[in-house]
Design brief:
The chain is of the alpha/beta class. 44% of the residues lie in helices and 23% in strands. It contains five helices and five strands; from the N terminus they run βββαβαβααα. It starts with a strand and ends in a 14-residue tail after the last helix.
């Protein structure tokens, strides 16, 4: 069975897709970045399908919604791809084709994505908590710095709720 390597350069509005067979790009298409449009495109591709796109803000959403539409799905590290494929011109259609070629060659480094929406949401909430703690520490340090500018020293615990 022939494997179609599909590279996708994803943008918030449009996605450039390139289908590669045996080292040759046989199809290029631009579709709206929506699950419906992407699934329609993937349904039209025959044979075994291997899809790849780079990690980004929409990667987790795309991974969870498209993984059942293809035989193989790789969300890859864009920094590593830059080191491998930085030669030549660069634009969205070319990048999609390069992703398909890199996937066929086995040069993509996969980034882990969970199949569980609950786990993804938990990680997002934990991340928000950590951001909030960093912001609070930054604010306290600013207040202490301003106090020092005027020769004052705020005692430890003075600005926290721990006492």
């Amino acid at each position: 069975m022939v494997t179609s390597y599909i590279g996708a350069d994803v943008d918030s509005k449009m996605t450039e897709l390139a289908v590669e067979h045996n080292g040759e790009i046989v199809c290029r298409q631009r579709v709206e970045t929506s699950i419906v449009a992407l699934k329609e495109f993937l349904a039209d591709v025959g044979g075994r399908k291997a899809l790849s796109f780079e990690e980004g803000p929409m990667a987790d959403w795309l991974y969870r919604n498209l993984k059942d539409s293809v035989d193989e799905l790789v969300v890859c590290d864009p920094r590593r791809n830059k080191l491998i494929a930085c030669d030549g011109d660069k634009d969205d259609p070319i990048d999609a084709g390069k992703l398909a070629e890199l996937h066929r060659g086995g040069y993509l480094r996969a980034v882990y994505h969970s199949d569980s929406v609950e786990r993804v949401l938990l990680k997002q909430w934990v991340g928000l908590y950590h951001d909030r703690v960093k912001d609070a520490v930054r604010q306290v340090n600013k207040i202490r710095g301003r106090c020092r500018m005027h020769g004052l020293r705020a005692p430890r615990g003075f600005l926290s709720n721990s006492n």
